[in-house]
Amino acid sequence: MTESTNIVLSGRLSAAADEEAAVTRNNHPSVPSSVPMDKSQALQENHKEPQGERTHEPHKKEKSVLQAKLTKLAIQIGYAGSTIAVLTVVILVTQFCVKTFVIDEKPWESKYASELVRHLIIGVTVLVVAVPEGLPLAVTLSLAYSVKKMMKDNNLVRHLDACETMGNATAICSDKTGTLTTNRMTVVNSYICEKLSKTTPKFSDIPQNVGNLLIQAIAINSAYTSRVMPSEEPTELPKQVGNKTECALLGFVQALNKNYQTIRDDMPEENFTRVYTFNSVRKSMSTVVPRQGGGYRLFCKGASEIIMKKCSFIYGRDGHLEKFTKEMQDRLVRQVIEPLACDGLRTISIAYRDFVPGKAQINEVHIESEPNWDDEEHIVANLTCIGVVGIEDPVRPEVPEAIRKCQRAGITVRMVTGDNINTARSIASKCGILKPGDDFLILEGKEFNRRIRDSSGEVQQHLLDKVWPKLRVLARSSPTDKYTLVKGIIDSKVNEAREVVAVTGDGTNDGPALKKADVGFAMGIAGTDVAKEASDIILTDDNFSSIVKAVLWGRNVYDSIAKFLQFQLTVNVVAVIVAFIGSCAVQDSPLKAVQMLWVNLIMDTLASLALATEMPTADLLLRKPYGRTKPLISRTMMKNILGQALYQLTVIFTLLFAGDKVLDIESGRHGESTGGPTQHFTIIFNSFVLMTLFNEINARKIHGQRNVFSGIFTNPIFYSIWIGTILAQIVIIEFGKSAFSTKGLDADQWLWCTFFGVGTLLWGQIITCVPTRKIPKILSKRHRREPIVETVSSVHETENIPIEPCKTISFSGASPYVLIPLSDSKYP
Prior knowledge:
Elements: H1 3-7, E1 8-10, H2 39-46, H3 65-103, H4 111-130, H5 134-152, E2 155-157, H6 160-166, E3 171-174, E4 186-192, E5 195-197, H7 208-220, E6 227-229, E7 239-241, H8 244-255, H9 260-266, E8 274-276, E9 284-290, E10 296-303, H10 304-310, E11 311-315, E12 321-323, H11 326-342, E13 346-356, E14 364-366, H12 376-379, E15 383-392, H13 399-408, E16 412-416, H14 421-431, E17 441-444, H15 445-452, H16 461-464, E18 471-475, H17 479-491, E19 501-505, H18 511-516, E20 519-523, H19 529-534, E21 537-539, H20 544-586, H21 593-611, H22 635-662, H23 679-698, H24 716-735, H25 737-740, H26 747-769, E22 817-819
Parallel strand pairs: 3-16, 3-19, 11-15, 13-14, 16-18, 17-18, 19-20, 20-21
Antiparallel strand pairs: 1-17, 2-21, 4-5, 4-15, 5-22, 6-7, 8-9, 9-10, 10-13, 11-12, 13-15
Helix pairs in contact: 3-4, 3-20, 4-20, 4-21, 5-6, 5-20, 5-21, 6-20, 7-9, 11-14, 20-21, 20-22, 21-23, 21-24, 22-23, 22-26, 23-24, 23-26
Organism: Polyplax serrata (Common mouse louse)
Subcellular location: Endomembrane system; Membrane
EC number: 7.2.2.10
């Protein structure tokens, strides 16, 4: 592969083939232990890390965005509520003592103790109402409800807080195979004996010696657990079992009308001499088997640019064996491999080498005794190239739209793959990760590490900060590269708000990256147990579009809690002020302790059930993530809370001080009542509850929407609780009597109370007309739009290495193939 295509692409679109996982991950798992498998070496290489970097360090995820904000808010409300509760008790007790012992000059009697206890109970009730003890319940209910619903959207949530965290995600680092693509692989192009075929060639058109080598190499040098099985339905495609890339190659053998199983039966795994398993360092797999006639034969397959460098011979036109010169290799890369990769195909090269005891041909090696199989560098060398195949792994139809939704929602999607750089670029373009005119960066793992490490090999954050904001595709990457990228984005101080990163992974070595990420997604189908254990959410369908649904539900959790807070804080403000001022003005709270507890039940438990179970809407993906610096209570919410509190307090205090005269009823104010429950205070209590219930409908909208009834019937829990609460309130008013300190109301009085309740809906429309900017900034500190994607352009420019435009191959006319000679020699 030429250096220019192997290093970096910047600012332009093109394409190509071969993935790290394209070869195999489970090669020959059933080989008995007696056969040397080179497993220890494979494991060491799989887990090899750049010097000085510890990717397996224990990681404890910090508190989620919502948890941090709720903790801070709950503490602030608790302090305020405690202060007002203490003041209420102090004022009530002081007024009682002054009036009783100073003005009336009465001596202490034991009956006064109950009066003091009553004042203390009022203070405790104020504290109970003020402290948002329903907040944890609302959060838990919302998360539990969302997690249950997310199962239907193919998201198995393992850690509850991951659901909410996903709503604040600003970056997604996604694998390619099976997540962005269908993982249904098919060989669609092949280059054999200088013929590039756009369809499966006839086996008779391939020179017999080359054809036999080809099907043997595919059948033997692949996991015997990988199989292509006939489908149960004639109209369905054959079922692929095992590694999908190997299944594509086995399907190619079947398309040549050959049976790979017959070859496997003749060469059982017990007879294997050596297997060099696939790993992220080799990017290839090799199998050594006994050779017919004596000696050994090594079959090798893997990433084309890797295998090409190890080949010294190639079969040319009509099966002629040729020396594979550097010029021919460059021509093959330029005229075949790169164009196939630009079409989004993976290219897999297939090669072999013979070790013979007798006279050796030009492409064979003579041996006197069994070679040293541990010397892989010299064993897997001087190969003979049999051919190159292009494997198609189509982009999932729903993925481009899902990525567009992420981008609209302020989430940057990055592809981290083992594919070569051209294939990765092509797939990223088809998915919509790369767009013409965008300022983006595509790097290969090797170049990525060169840019972010100092001379000692240590990762430097300031160097990484120059790369990651523009980086959209990281190709030919290892699990260590993925971990380094994720850690670098999370630790970066480029943006004022820390990035919230989600990562997908399926391999054992993806564990550290999945743990380090704010939200780790493991593949439910292709993922290993280690990856699933390290993850927060398991995608049961391995589909990227399911991640978008997780974002939707995460944002819905955040908004559901915000709705609950908007409702609860309005009730808090009104109830606490009424109790406090009522105590000061009339030496008694207009809302009795048991009534406050009923309001608290409506405000906390029932409201959390009603508001925390709202279904998400598509509008949630039209805004950017809230981020860590934006306050939980926005200006719009603060406007609604203060506006509704003003209306309700005006109604309640008007009823408290003038309601008895306007409605021509007995006053319930202290000193004017004949004792027992009064209609006066009952009307105040009933009006307050009805205003609270109708305001619960207003609280369903937190972004200034006018239609507060929109979607109300999509949530049966909400309207069931709302209607049930209204019925319970009627029972309490009419039959509560001394237990609830209420007295029955007539129809006119009920109409007045209902009018005040409905008035909150009308008042809500007036509040919506008030410009949000009129709300003082002090009420919504640090409120600003966060720079999520926009900050990319402000990052230091990185050096860009120009590359040639990506080229594709044109098949002229009806010909199923084109001739691409690699040498200048002419054949007769």
